[in-house]
Amino acid sequence: MHKHSWLALLIGALGNAGAWAADGDLSTSGKFDERTGEALFHQVCQGCHMPQAQGASGAGAYPALAANAKLAAKVYPVFMVSSGQGGMPGFKDSMSDQQIADVVNYVRSHFGNAFADSVTLEDVRSVTQR
Questions:
Q1: Which tens digits make up the pLDDT trace of 61-82?
Q2: Which of 23, 60, 65, 114 gets the most CB atoms within 10 Å of its CB?
C-alpha cells in the first residue's frame, strides 16, 4: 500500500473516532454516558461480541458471552471488563465502577446466563482498586 493510502486510512480513522465521541458515547471527560448495563452492552460490547452475545471469529476471535460458564465466577467478568486481556481492552478508565457492575450484571443475567448473585460495587472495587 502506498504511503498516502496509509495516511488516508489514518485520517479517516481519526475522523471517525472524533465522530464517535461527538455522538455522545463518551462524555467530554472520556467516560461512557450510558447508565444501564443494557445500554452499555449495546454501545460498547456488542460490536465485538455480537448483538446476541454469540461471539464472532474472522479478523479476530471474540468469545461468546451467551451461555458462558466462565461468567459464573463474578470476579472474572469484572476483571475482563475493567482490565481487559489479549485483544480486549480494559474499560476501567472509561467506565465507572457502577457502570462495570451494571454491564457485568446485565450479561450475567441475559443471553442464556442466569447467574443470580449480583456483582456489587465492592466486587468491582476489589478489582479496580478505586
A1: 999 999 999 999 999 999 999 9
A2: 65
End-to-end CA distance of the chain: 45
CATH class as words, domain 32-128: mainly alpha
Residue 20 region by backbone torsions, left for phi larger than 0, else alpha for psi between -120 and 50, else beta: alpha
pTM of the model as a whole: 0.78
The 10 Å Cβ neighbour count of residue 126 is 13
Identify the sign of the CA torsion 104, 109, 111, 113.
positive
- In the block, residue with C-alpha cell 457492575: 101
* 119: β partners: none
CA distances from 9 to 5, 12, 23, 117 (A): 6, 5, 21, 45
Alpha helices in 2-59 (DSSP H): 3-22, 37-40, 46-49
